[in-house]
Design brief:
Elements: H1 7-10, E1 14-17, E2 21-31, E3 34-44, E4 54-55, E5 58-59, E6 68-72, E7 76-78
Antiparallel strand pairs: 1-2, 1-7, 2-3, 3-6, 4-5
Length: 100
Amino acid sequence: AKEEINHRKLIGKKVLVEGYGDGILMFFGHVEFAKGSKLCGVALLEAKGENDGAVDGNRYFECTQGCGVFVSAEKVAPWTESKVLPDSATPPRTTPESSE
C-alpha cells in the first residue's frame, strides 16, 4: 500500500515526475481531454514536455512552451533532497568543516 500523497498540497512545490524529471506542480484536477481522471499539470524545469499548460484550447496553468506536461498522479512524487544526484550536479557547499 503506497502512502497517499495529497497532490493539492503540493501545488506550487517542486516535484519529481517519472520519465520527465524535476518540475513544479501547477495543477491537479479534472481535465477536459481525459474525462474522469484527475491529472497533475507540471511545469518542467527543462523543456521535455508537450505544451505550455494549455491543451485543446483549454488553459490549466501557464509555463514556457514545451515545459508543460500532464501526467497521472502516481507519476508525481514530492521532490526530496535525498534523491541521488546525477554526476553533473554538485551539492552546494554549506559548511567549511564538511571538506573531506
